Amino acid sequence: MLPQSEWAPFIKRRAAELGFMACGISKAEFLEEEAPRLETWLTKRMNGKMGYMENHFDKRLDPRLLVDGAKSVISLLLNYYPAPEDQQPDETLKISKYAYGRDYHFVIKDKLKTLLADMEAEIGAIGGRCFVDSAPVLDKAWAKKSGLGWVGKNSNLITPGTGSFYFIAELIVDVELPADGPIRDYCGTCTKCLDACPTQAITEPYVVDGSKCISYFTIELKDQIPTEVAGQFGNWVFGCDICQDVCPWNRFSKPHQEPQFNPAPGLKDLTPGDWREITHELFTELFRQSAVKRTGYEGLKRNIKFVVDGE
C-alpha cells in the first residue's frame, strides 16, 4: 500500500496513463458561491423545459449528500477535440464535435471505474462514486475549485494552453486528499463568445440562458422548435460549438488521442442533401454509439427540417 503522501501523485499519474488530460482535487464541501447563482438561474427559468435541473437542488451543491462521508472531489478532463481532417466542412449540416464518436458517457465511465479500482488496490478500501454528466453534480464548479481552469464568459471551463474542448468527470470519494487551489480568470475584456452567439443565449458575461441555446433546441427540447428562432441556427442540427470555436483560447486545442472519439466513417462526407434524406438505417449506422442517439432519428429529422426549411 502507498503511504498517504503518495496518494494524490499516484491518482494524477494513473489518470494521465488512462488518457485524461488533467486531474485536480478539491475538498468535498458545500458550494457556497454557486448556491445563489444556481437559485437565480432556476428562478429565471433559464433551464427552459429541462425540469430535471430543478431536482436535487441540495445534492447539486453538496457532494456529501451523494457519497456518505465524502471528503474529496477528484475532477478529470478528457480531450475530445478532433483533428482538422476529421472535422465537418463548414458548408454541410453539422453536429457538435463532442458527438462525432462513441458516446462519452461510456468511454469515461470505463476509465473512471478503472481508476477507482486502481486506487483501491494502492490505497485500500474506498467509498466512492463515478460521475459523468449523469447525476446532480456541478462539474464545472468542481473543476474550477480544483484548479483545472476558470469558468469563462460562455460558461464553459477554459484551461490555459488547452482551451475548452474536453469532457469533465468526477470521482467523489471518502478519502482525504490534498486540495489544489483555483486559478484566475483569463477572459479579460474579450467578448467574442457573446458577440458570436446567434440566439443571444449568453445574456451577459458568465450567464447563459439555457432556454435560448441552440444545443437546448436541438437536443433537450422535445417539442416543436419555436418559429421565432428560425434562421438563427446556421447549419447546426445537433448541438453547437460557436461560442467555443470563436474563443481565442481554443487556438491551443490539440487533437485528442482517444480512438473511440474518432468520427464514424462517412460522417464528414455527408452533403446537405444526404442529411436531408437521411434514412433510419443510415442514422443507426452512423450514430449507433454516438450521443446523437439522445435526440433520436425523429428528433434529428425535425432539426434538419427546421434548419433547411425554417419550420
Automatic annotation (TrEMBL):
Keywords: 4Fe-4S, Cobalamin, Cobalt, Cytoplasm, Iron, Iron-sulfur, Metal-binding, Oxidoreductase, Queuosine biosynthesis, tRNA processing
Entry binding sites for [4Fe-4S] cluster 1: 187, 190, 193, 247
Details of cofactor binding: Binds 2 [4Fe-4S] clusters per monomer.
Pathway where this protein functions: tRNA modification; tRNA-queuosine biosynthesis
One Pfam family, short name: QueG_DUF1730
PROSITE patterns: 4FE4S_FER_1, 4FE4S_FER_2
A GO biological-process term: tRNA queuosine(34) biosynthetic process
One GO MF term: metal ion binding
Residues the entry annotates as binding [4Fe-4S] cluster 2: 197, 213, 240, 243
Compartment annotation: Cytoplasm
Main function: Catalyzes the conversion of epoxyqueuosine (oQ) to queuosine (Q), which is a hypermodified base found in the wobble positions of tRNA(Asp), tRNA(Asn), tRNA(His) and tRNA(Tyr).
Protein name in the entry: Epoxyqueuosine reductase
Organism: Hymenobacter sedentarius
